[in-house]
Specification:
Number of strands: 7
Structural class: alpha+beta
Radius of gyration: 27 Å
Shape: elongated
Order of helices and strands: HHHHEEEEEEEHHHHH
Largest sheet: 7 strands, antiparallel
Number of helices: 9
């Protein structure tokens, strides 16, 4: 049965959490927009309207992180203020224990955890996949965007291209192509092609490629012994640019929801190795475990908030940052163990939740004895 004090505390926590989640989501979404804006608007020439869709699809992805963090900040701030204003002591004088005072907030944390589970296991991966598909379809509508002059196109596997100027709708001048080779991380080209003119272009959407007919060609290529080979030609065979550069053909775990991953693990395709299947399984477990972050962090946040009796705003923000970073960092460490043992990875992914639960119970007991 919810008492008036329960509704009062829940209302305070929920309102503060809503405000914190809003601020954090705006920051994360804007950060991702600035990160991707060069690729979206410059390299891929996506329309401005695509930014609105990009924001809507990115919001569920950001909420997976901002809901736990915002809820933790709200718990610390509200319980810090309640402790500072002696309202907690008033409730305890009325016969309510700390666990009873905290129970409605823990229940709210459970509800938010279920919301995060839905977002993390279903909505977020679908949003990521929808973004990739929409971007690919937008690009495929006008494949000549790949050849906009003055823009370095770097999203094609193994190569980068640059065109100096446009002569007409389907002809250009100053075509530069850099072959990156197998080790793309170094970004040091192993081959270079320059063509004075791109005489004609044949978009072929059915086989997803562009055929460029080049003239006035200069070639440079390093052989296996790292000797530079050079040559020139009036014309060469059509230079092929794959349109699927805008679309990833690899099956990625972060773009499949948990139901799709479960079906994949039940009937695995022949082209997926056991190591790759372990990655999908680990991703599924990570989503489930990480979704319970609001409830786990609430167990730590409530007793920590009770100890923040002064300057609750600054101390609550600082503690929420420290606790959230430690919690998220452990998941990063667990992800790094995927190559060694799947069972170890699964265990480590649940450690942060159980650690928060154990540490929270310890803090609750200590707070009860002090009171």
């Amino acid at each position: 049965m919810f008492l008036k004090s329960d509704r009062y505390i829940v209302r305070q926590v929920f309102a503060t959490a809503l405000y914190a989640v809003l601020i954090l989501s705006v920051v994360l979404v804007l950060g991702n927009i600035f990160k991707e804006i060069n690729e979206l608007l410059v390299e891929r020439r996506a329309p401005i309207s695509f930014l609105g869709i990009f924001i809507l699809k990115l919001l569920p992805v950001s909420l997976v992180f901002t809901i736990p963090w915002g809820f933790l900040a709200a718990v610390l701030l509200v319980f810090g203020r309640l402790s500072s204003d002696q309202e907690i002591n008033s409730l305890r004088t009325a016969g309510m224990g700390l666990y009873r005072i905290a129970s409605p907030v823990l229940f709210l944390g459970l509800l938010l955890s279920l919301l995060c589970l839905w977002l993390n296991a279903t909505v977020s991966p679908r949003s990521k996949e929808d973004l990739k598909v929409m971007l690919y379809e937008t690009f495929k509508e006008d494949p000549l965007r790949l050849l906009d002059p003055g823009v370095v196109q770097s999203r094609m596997k193994g190569q980068q291209i640059y065109i100096e100027a446009r002569v007409s709708e389907k002809s250009f001048q100053g075509f530069h192509a850099y072959e990156l080779g197998a080790n793309e991380a170094s970004k040091w080209p192993v081959g270079y092609l320059y063509a004075r003119n791109v005489a004609s272009i044949t978009p072929d959407k059915e086989v997803e490629k562009l055929e460029l007919r080049l003239s006035g060609v200069w070639l440079e290529k390093y052989d296996e012994k790292q000797n530079l080979q050079q040559g020139s030609a009036g014309k060469i065979a059509p230079w092929i640019l794959p349109l699927e550069a805008g679309k990833s053909r690899r099956m990625k775990a972060n773009r499949l929801d948990n139901e799709q991953i479960r079906e994949l693990l039940t009937n695995p395709p022949d082209n997926l190795t056991d190591k790759k299947l372990d990655e999908f399984d680990a991703e599924r477990i990570r989503r489930i475990s990480f979704s319970f972050a609001p409830l786990a962090l609430a167990f730590v946040g409530i007793p920590l908030g009770l100890s923040a009796r002064r300057k609750e705003t600054s101390s609550g923000s600082g503690m929420s940052l420290g606790v959230a970073v430690a919690y998220f960092l452990f998941f990063i460490i667990a992800d790094e163990t995927q190559g060694s043992s799947l069972m170890l990875t699964k265990v480590l992914m649940w450690v942060p939740n159980f650690a928060c639960l154990a540490f929270g119970i310890f803090l609750f007991r200590r707070a009860t004895k002090r009171a």
